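Data card: per-record layout.
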Amino acid sequence: MCGCALFIGCGSDAGGETSIQEGVEIKLSDGIVMGEVDGATRRFLGIPFAAPPTGERRWLPPGPPEPWDTPLETSEFSAACPQLVSTASPEPSENEDCLYLNVWAPEPAPSGSLPVMIWFHGGSNTGGSTGDDIPFLQPPTLFYNGRGLVEEANVVVVTANYRLGVMGFFAHEALSAESADGVSGNQGILDQRMVMEWVQSNIAPFGGDPENVTIFGESAGAFDVCFHMVSEGSLGLFDRALGQSGGCTTALRTRSEAEAEADVFAEAMGCGDASDVAACLRAVPVADLLTEAPVDGAIEDPPGGDFYSGGTPRWQFQAVVDGVVIADQPRTLFDDGNVADVPYVLGSNSDEGTLFHVLQPEVETEAEYLEALERRFGETVAAQVAVAYPATDFDSPQDALERVTGDAGLVCSVRDTAKRAAAAGLDVFLYNFDRPIPIPALAALDLGATHGAEIAYVFGSIGPDVIGEDDIALSATMQRYWGRFAATGDPNGGNDLAWPMFSADEDMRLNFNVTLSTVPDFRSDVCTLWESVYDSEF
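The structure for this 538-residue chain is written out next.
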């Protein structure tokens, strides 16, 4: 990064256009893009940041896009990357030509460079896209609309697709043999890094400051932000990090584990005995590659839902400790201080677990609750969990199980990462989101402040036709905190409630609801239990 962030005309090392440009016709090093005006925002949808990962490029690290001679109309989102139907994306996709990003910038163009916020969407790293609509809301409303942050937080926003599931997290020894680094399996993480590199070279003409970049994301996107915190190749490409409902200091699969599963998958695709396994797999249609893994040992329609089936999928495609992109277990890298030296905001929601039980069979009795815990955690840990979450302390055994799901998977793992980040010397700010989003369909499901509920508030995606003045005000408040953090690395300022810095010795977080508050030691008793469970996985 260059050291002249305050001067218009400071360029990136890649030698792209450097001056802020007016209007909706922006000249980039690869060609001209034609955007459109939306309120006080210019938006540019569907800009290629990498070559299509199709044909022989399937599973390779991302490469640069082909330049274009004719001005490129950028008024529509690109196709989502290949995926099955999910809550986030009700339409499946088989389109591998999906590596595109979107830029929202002020209209008129700013007189000086603004902070840049790069968003990585959620979806378990198997689904989702930048063009997703808000689930359960009619009429369809864009989830990740950068306009709100541009106009309220005075930033430039970038959102980007990245390869998912088998296309983006496939580690196979045949692919590793093709790599100069001898590894494979984190293609989606490399796509996100390519976005950050694109920003370094191209964001200045939009009014963005390549010397002041925040990466932020939710759920899988927040986990990925955390991976970039410990990925050597990503260091220097961002200046702040913000993770909404995701850390990364629980156990990741190793390369050997991932490659063993990949062999099983290759066999299922008919390529196990091929003379050139990589070529064989590249010839398999996308629809076949998206085949869901059989789950060995699972019971059918288990009380408690899929998380509590007791089975083991024959393959799964998630980030892997490959020795290069992710050099070691992230918790080890945090504990050794091998982490980006940047301010870090992390947080979670009060009712993270409820979303994962929608349309799933419920536990109806305390006996079914205990059996579900045993299927997922084994008898020893299940007994400890039952003591920490007695069904009699909740309105129903199902409510107890939903709290377990959220705390085990997100609330307490986020705290674990926050503690390790603070111990590494980083400025850490922790939050809890506590507001049930007042979408009628969600209210009917009684999900509370569920997983992903904060996103619409951060982006300002829902207007006064759906939510009232209190929620509009909460959204504006969150955007102020996010914008100040992007600008300075400290979310505090103005007349808003002071957000205390988190430390292992002083577990304080800001609680977001209609009335803001600070909360000490949020669920620290149960999180201490889960931290011991995380420890046992190494």
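Known properties of this structure: The chain has a mean pLDDT of 95. The first strand starts at residue 25 and ends at 28.

See the next section for split statistics.
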